[in-house]
Amino acid sequence: MAGCGCGAAAPNAELLEFPKTDKRRFLHVVYRVGDLDRTIKFYTECFGMKLLRKRDVPEEKYTNAFLGFGSEESNFAVELTYNYGVDHYDIGTGFGHFAIATPDVYKMVEDIRAKGGVITRAPGPVKGGSTVIAFVKDPTGYIFELIQRCSTPEPLCQVMLRVGDLERSIKFYEKALGMKVVKKTDRPEQKYSIAMMGYAPEEETTVLELTYNYGVTEYTKGNAYAQVAISTDDVYKSGEVVSLVNQELGGKITRQPGAVPGLNTKIVSFLDPDGWKTVLVDNEDFLKELK
Ligand SMILES: C[C@@H](O)C(=O)SC[C@H](NC(=O)CC[C@H](N)C(=O)O)C(=O)NCC(=O)O
Question: Which protein family is named in the record (predicted)?
Fold first, then answer.
């Protein structure tokens, strides 16, 4: 809505300010795995994650396991979903990787190799840059990037997704989610650009790494990766903001704001312009879930 000329902010302009002042942080990333016990063993033994909690929902025939490097009250976590009897998933071409920061990628790769882990990219400087990286494949086929970085409060530091229009995605995550571009890199020789989107510098917290490969506007999504969860103080106001931004940039609300039946946790879910899903979770309800 345009300003009315009386000096007061238009209602939509006020609403669009909300995500910037809301209490937001990355809570967890949700994805499906074909063998829960094997994945938990791999993440704890090869990556050094801790099993934080587990819940079985037999009436819906699935089990969740939460793993990470610290308490979910302040750290990012992975939420693994095992659907009874489903041992294989299609990861698609759009999902990129999760990332783990570690002070010595070479040593971590050596340890993972010794434990039988699959290294898909040997340790060394990233093509076109200097940061030391390596890629590891988990038992379902998800790629984890290992990134050499001095000690950090959040080792589980990236979720990388490929997008078809980087500027459109940046606008979406800024406006709908209140994120900032914490780093932008263009590598013309490698024909890609990336935008790290988040709520704090990438060395301090998890960021969403959006990758644009020159000329590629579409990817497949498969059925393995699900969504990232981010906290909010108000799912209803957040939903109004997302609806407004969807009208301008695309995407859509997939679950209207409200409590999840049986859980009492208020959420709102939506797709970005490429179809990647985010769920916003009420801050207080989330903390109650952890008790
Ligand atoms: C540190 C940070 O800059 C990176 O690690 S970027 C990693 C780099 N990403 C890409 O190449 C993205 C484009 C690619 N076509 C894709 O869609 O994944 C990377 O994976 N480099 C590979 C390497 O061997 O250096």
Answer: Belongs to the glyoxalase I family.
Active-site residue, from 145, 154, 174, 209: 145
79 annotated binding-site participant = yes
Q: Which residues line ligand 1 (CB under 6 A)?
A: 96, 121, 126-127, 129, 131, 133, 145, 147, 162, 185, 190, 192, 211, 213
In a domain, 1, yes or no: no
What average pLDDT score do residues 170-181 get? 98
The structure tokens listed for 10 are: 């238009």
Contacts of 281 (CB under 8 A, 6+ apart): 27, 229, 230, 231, 232, 235, 265, 266, 267
Give the percent of the chain with pLDDT over 70: 97
Closest by CA position to 133, among listed 97, 182, 162: 97
Mean of all residue pLDDT scores within the chain: 95
Which structural domain, as residue segments, surrounds residue 182? Answer: 6-289
What pLDDT is attached to residue 3? 40
Active site residue 174: no
> What pLDDT does 4 receive?
44
Q: Which pLDDT belongs to residue 262? A: 78
177-201 burial, b at 16+ Cβ within 10 Å, e below that, comes to bbbbebeeeeeeeeebbbbbbbbee
Residue 69 lies in a domain: yes
- Name the 3-class secondary structure at 275: coil
Report the number of distinct structural domains present in the chain: 1
What pTM did the predictor assign? 0.95
